[in-house]
Structure formats: C-alpha cells, structure tokens
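Notes, Module 5: Reading structure tokens.

Key idea: the token line is not a picture. It is a compressed description, and you learn to read it the same way you learned to read a sequence, by spotting repeated patterns. We will look at two proteins. The first is printed below with its tokens.
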Amino acid sequence: MSRSHGRIEPVSVVDPVLPGKGPDTPVPVSGLSQMMGDYIARLGSVWVEGQVAEINMRGGLSFVGLRDIDSDSTIKLFTWERSTLQVTPAIEQGSRVIAQVRAEWWRNKGTLQFKVLQIRVVGLGELMARLEALRDTLAAEGLFAPERKKPIPFLPRRIGLVCGKNSDAKHDVIENARRRWPDAEFEVREVKVQGATAVREVSDAVNELDAIDDIDVIVVARGGGSFEDLLPFSDESLIRTISNAQTPIVVAIGHEEDRPLVDYVADYRASTPTDAANKIVPDVLEELTYINALRSQSYALVTTTIARHGQELATLRAKPALANPSALIDQRLSANSSLREQLHSKVTTRIQLGGAEIRGIQATLRALSPQGTLERGYAIVRDLNQNVIKSVGQVKPNEVMKIRLSDGEITVTINDSK
C-alpha cells in the first residue's frame, strides 16, 4: 500500500517466494500470521481524517471507531497510552479528527488494527478556513454567479422535496405550501441530512427528482442544526450536483450564522423551510385579493370612460349643428350668397377700372402714333425703297415718290427739287 492525500492506497508488490505453494508444503497459521505482520510493518504511518463514531476503554487499551466523513467506511484505532487521546479540545463521539496511525497486525488474533501515534481535533477555525477556501475556488469557477440562477416558476406543477425522515422541515414545507395553495403536489424523498451518508443520499435524491419531467422546482430542506451537523451541505460534490441540476432548486437549511455553501449555488436561498414554502407557491388569498382589486380597477376605469364619452356625446348633441342641422345649412347658404355678391361687385369694379385704364392708354397711343400726326395734316414721303425723305437734298428731279396721307397713299413725280 501507499499513501496518497492522507489515504492508504494499494501498491504493486512482487510476491515473495513463500512456502505453502502446494498441499505438500503447508504454512502453519503462525507462519502466515508472521508473514502478514512483516508485510504490514513495512507500510509505515499515514495521516487520516474522519469522525469519531465511538470511544471505548478496556483492558488497558483505548479503542476509537473512526468513520469516513462521506461514506459508511469505518476503521478501528487503538492506543496503549490513554494520554494520547487526552487532547484539547477533548475528543468525544462525533468529533472530527485527524490522526497519524500505523497499521499493526495482531498475530495471535489474526486481526488488523491501527495504532494511534498522534491525534487532534479538527477545530472550528480550521474547518471554516477550509470551507472559505472551497467557497473561493467554486466562486472563481462561476458556480455562484447570478446569471446562473434559474427563475422559480410562479405556479409549479409538482414540487420535489428532499428532507430528513419524518422531519419538522418536511411538515413545515408541505403544510405551509398547501396553506397558501391547497392544490400543491409534492414528490418527497426522505433521506439522511447529517452523518456519513448524507451527501450521497441528498445528491441521489436531487438527481432523481431532477430527472422527473413535471417537477418544476426542488426544495432541499433541513431545520437548522450545529455547524458540524450542517457540514454535508458544504460538500463539494453536493454543491456540484445542485449546480448541474436543470430544475430550479431552493435550499432551506435554516442556519443564519454560518451559511453552508449550498446557499450560494442554489437558485434561491430560503432562511427557513417556511420561507421556502412561501417562495415556491403563491398565496391563493393574496392572488384572489389581487384579482378582485384588478377587477374593481377595471370596472372603475370602464365606468369612468363610458361616463366621459357620454358627456362628450351630450355636449356634441347640444351644439346647434346637431340640434337644428337646417339652420346650419341656411347659415352657410346665406354666407355663400354674401360672398357671391361681394365677389361679383369686386369683379365688376375691377373690369370697369380696367376698361377706363385701357381707354386712357388708347388715347395716349393715338396721340403719339404717326396716324394721329397724319390726321393733323402732315404727310410722310418715301422713295421707292421705302426710305423716308427728310431733306430736299435727298430728292432728284423726275424721281418717283410715295406720299402717305391720313387716309391713303399717292405716287408723284418730282419736277423740281428746289
């Protein structure tokens, strides 16, 4: 055997050449016992941790039953010196201890015992330091992160409950839940919630309930206890089991002073089993009160809205347009007639002003036009190329000219241009 992390592990050893290989060379019992003693003596000592299951004093020897923390495994320790067990704090049944032991083979009886060389109680401070280190490790992995928390359903179909056998925690959760919601259904797993098998039994129960489809929430409940009694709820394997569950988990260990580590990984941490019951189901009376309040608010809102719209309708009906629609039409017709008359008057006036303005412009144009000049007795003389003759010097004898008068044009021949 070898020592690994304080535990004895089997090792590969080459079997010595021993007598007794056949029926002709049997080994006496004392010889076999001697060989066992020699072999075991080579193992040396090892440090082991466990919980004291019993302490007995007889025949000058002190015997201690040491039980594994997480299983049912137990070994027997002994010491010749009772003073070895007289340590501070005192060792008693249930104490968690670490001991340096050496395996010894009792040849006469053919039994294996472990002699205590040193032993001491694992103090509260040391346990708390270990738990704090484990808490920091798991927190660094993200197991306690808020985003990992699963929401608790408003009204679960069935509730899984992991609790001690015939415990007050079971009664508190079920009775208070059904007091709030009478139709609440439970699937209960009664297990050990302290001692060597607690971790395995609670873990198995959680896994079993997590595999049931219509269980929407799981409650792990225990009604408090001493720090040592609650150590299983700080076990790393149980913490990882709860973390890996697909179903939301509520833990209600009921220990405010020293919170077990499952409180950090659970989806909801209840202070007591009663608090867990209040969390997992709604209160039917509160819900009915809330529904009635909503109904009253809705009725008041509808009634107020109808009344407001009725008042608005009455106001509209009281307006003249609705009280006597023909009066409004007559009013609009009268307004249209007035507008038509105003428009006609303005258009007529504008036409008259425009006509007078045009006549004035015509008179001005007539006075300034060449025709007006001709009518006053003047004439315009042009040659055959239509050039206007402005000087005598432009005319030659016998040249043909055209003279424009007010009422027509004549052609003349120039005899003399003096």
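Here is the second protein, with the sequence above and the tokens below, as before.
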Amino acid sequence: MISSKISSGRFRFRDNAWLPGPLLIAGFALGVGVLLLGAWMERGWSFFVLYNGFLLLLALVDMGLLRGTSRITVRRECDAVWELEKDHRVRLVLFNPLPFALPVKIRDDYPEGFRIDRRTMAVVVPPKKGAEAVYTARPHRRGRHRFDRIHLRFTGLLRLVIRQRAFDAGEERQVFPPLDEVRRIRGGVYRKALSRSGAHSRRSHERGSDFSHTREYVPDDEPKMINWTASARRGRLVTNVYQPEQGQLIAILLDCGRVMGVREKGVTRFDRSLEAALGLAAIALERGDQVSLLAFSNRIHRWVPPGKGSHHLQRFIQATFDLEPDLSESDYRTALESLALRQKRRSLVTLFTDADNLIFANDLMQYLAVLKRRHLVLTVSIQNPFLQRQAEMWPEQGEAVFRKAVAQELQREREERLNRMRREGMIALDAPSDRLAPAVIHTYLDVKNRSAL
C-alpha cells in the first residue's frame, strides 16, 4: 500500500513536472545510430558524449525558455446557473506574458459524472496576448458540484521539453432542475390563461394580515393596532389598517421516497416532479398566490413556509435544487400531519408522488380523504411507459400474452383508483413524464378559472 505522503508527492510531481518533448525522444532514438557509427569508427565514447551533450544542452536552453511559464495566468468562465441535462459552455482563458508564442494543451478537472465533448484541448497563445479553449459540459445530476484544477502542458520553442503545471481554480457550481417552464411563465406564455382566471381575493369578515395603510386613531380602535413609531413622528395617535390576504395558498408536497428514484431516459421521476413543482410555484406566484413546500420521505426533508413574489421563487429553487430521493418508504401520515399543523388555511394541496402508491397504498387514500375535508387535493403522478407498451403490444408467444394480460389488469386497476379519487372530489392528474410540467400548470389554471379553491 502506498503511503499518503508518497501518494501526495506523486500528485505534486504530476502537477509540476518536466517531460521529454517529441523531438528529444526522436533525438535520443537517433543517437543509437550515431553511437553505432562512432563504434564503427572506433570513437564510440566520443560520439556518445558529444552528441548527447549537445542534445542535453539544447534541452537545457529549451527549459530555460519555459521557466517563465509560472507567470502564465488561466481562469475558468462558465454559466452562473447550471441546469440538469443541459449543455453548458466552459471557457478556459489564458494570458501569455512571454515574448514568444506558446503551444499549450489544456485539461480541466470537471466534476465527476459530467459529460463533456472533449477532454484535451490544444491552443497556441500569441506573445503578450490571450487565447481561450472552450468545451461543453452536461451535468448528470442536481446538487453541488466542484470544478478543481486546470492542467496545462507547454511545449518549448525547440520542442525538446514539455513543462507540465497545474493551476488552482477550484470552484463550486450549483446544478438546478430544468427551468424551461419557469422561463416560459416569465416570458408570458400563459398570460392569456392568467387573464381569464382574473385576480381573486379571499373574502372574510375577519381582519386581514396584509398591511394596507395608516390612519388617525379613533376611540373604537384596538390599542394593539396603534403604530407607536408613526404616532411619535406625527405627534398624534396613528392606527395600522390591514386588508384581507390577496390570492390563495398553494401547498406542494414532494415525495422523496424510494419509488421516486426510478429512472426513465436517464432522468428520475423525482427530477420530473421537481421540474413540474417549480413550474407550478412560478405560475402561482405570478398570479399572486402564496406557495409553500414540504419535501418528505420517511421524515421531513425540507419545509418552505408560504410566501409570494419573485424573491420567494428564488428561495423555492434554492431550497430544492439539491434534494434527492432516498431508499426509504414514504411516510404519508407524517407528511400530511405536519402540513396540517403548519398550514391551517384552506389550500390547494398538490401531492407529487408515484401512481403505484396512489393505487396500492390504502392508508394514503384514508389520509387524503381526511385532508379533503379542509383542503382541495390535487395528486400528480407520472404515467408508466413500460406498462403502456406491454399493454398495447401484439403478443407472439405465450409469455407475451401473459405479460400483456397482467399489464392490462394493472392499467385497469390504475384507472379505477384514479377515477375513484375524482368521484370523491379530488383532482387526479396522471401525465407523461415529458409533459408533466405543462399538464400541472394547465390543471392549476383550470382550478382557478372554475374558482374551485
């Protein structure tokens, strides 16, 4: 086993090393012929010393020219926002302060798992000028990822020696879920549907909680409503006036359990659900509603209290970008009880989960039935493409007939359970993975247009 000290020494040598260039290797190979010629002329040692001494002298001159590479600067420039399964350009910018052009080969220590279009890049940096190398990187999962060092290989003017150096350029990047629907919403794609839904406010005879303005104190006002700061500034008593809250509450429940980690075309069900949840949050905040989030599996992972405005969407994205499904079974009772304690006002509760849980988890149906007494419940699940293919295929063998029959039976049970939920007053959405976000947004707008909340 190699000790840590020896191992670290080897890594330092790799990051700061001198290597023979292609012409130096060719020169030593040619030296064999020179040595044989000298031996034939009975001057082998003389030829060996003169030839190799001259070659080494040229190599030392080449090394001297490359001593100034320590003054080379390199930096990495890339997008501030990275999104899952999107190509992002990474620029490596070099500046050469030396008086001669410098051929350089570049390698970047990109995060493990990222897919890149090329590993090694070659550029020629002009004297006293800069140059750049560009490659494309595609993140494979959300969360925090770290870029490390940038490795450079400089070839000398005589091409006898190569200088290898590593430059510290460590930085962390955050990879977010795809934000296509969020950009579409902010770009006004759903503006016409939003205008049809109008602006609704909750009607209540109770005092609201949104501050409206101040007015002079009258004897019937409650003392606790007096604004003492404004009163001291004006020299007379001033009372705060509050208005009812504008918009409604949207509670998003995000299942982070085991079944949400199933992958389809390299993307998990959880990734698709998170993308749709962000789209729902964006459209609701655009409309003036308040949005909260509760992410759970067998415990509560994240809680984002209700809020509104564009700043709340940023908070929403930051709170969820590194969430990952775990290997535990989802505890719906804990999640729904936690939501009931945290959010008592009537809300549109949107549960992103797997359809199999909706079908086979009888306890979940009981919890949703209790939740429906106070809130409007929307369940969101992703269709199973494998099950659909098996149910629609044309069987050619006995085993295929059996698979088709089982798939059709599972499809029938699935539709029956979803229809039962709809008959009980819930909204059950079951959409393809690539159309999940638009389907959730249109369902939300339909609910608003019908004023069902």
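Summary for the second protein:
- The chain has a mean pLDDT of 82.
- The two ends are 66 Å apart (CA to CA).
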